[in-house]
Specification:
Elements (H helix, E strand, L loop, with lengths): L1 H16 L5 E6 L4 H10 L4 E6 L17 E4 L2 E5 L3 H10 L5 E4 L17 E6 L2 E7 L1
Parallel strand pairs: 1-2, 4-5
Antiparallel strand pairs: 1-3, 3-4, 5-6, 6-7
Length: 135
């Protein structure tokens, strides 16, 4: 019985480590260097596939929060240079929103060169927005 308990204890972490990463599809414009950098940034925590194209209208992303690329994960969109911590929070909490966004292309944000400064990640539901988190 003791051997079984020890094997079970050892097997649980191995099963946990074998769980698949969440899938992220990044839609981007050809030749955009920051989109490539952002995809690389996400790839350490998520399984990333890259698709040239634009899905902003399809997801109803308001003009004022748009950026150069859109990530789709399940039913959510992630617009712009959103930090992984915000994406993980979104996937863990599963709020009743359409997605999250970092408008524009802030210097020092994930995938962008420059010195990091505080970012405000917005939640988006229809045309409404609000603060989701600060990073």
């Amino acid at each position: 019985m003791k051997k079984f308990a020890v094997l079970l204890i050892l097997a649980v972490p191995a099963v946990y480590l074998a769980l698949p990463k969440a899938e992220a599809t990044i839609y981007y414009q050809a030749g955009c260097g920051c989109c490539e950098e952002y995809a690389e940034y996400l790839s350490s925590d998520f399984t990333v596939s890259k698709v040239q194209g634009n899905v902003k209208d399809r997801f109803g992303i308001p003009e004022e929060v748009r950026s150069c690329h859109t990530v789709v994960m399940g039913d959510y969109f992630i617009e712009g240079h959103v930090p992984k911590e915000a994406i993980k929070k979104l996937l863990e909490e599963r709020p009743d929103i359409d997605g999250i966004a970092v408008p524009g292309m802030p210097e020092g944000s994930p995938g962008m060169p420059g010195e990091k400064s505080e970012l405000t990640v917005l939640w988006v539901k229809g045309e409404s927005t609000g603060v989701f988190m600060r990073w």
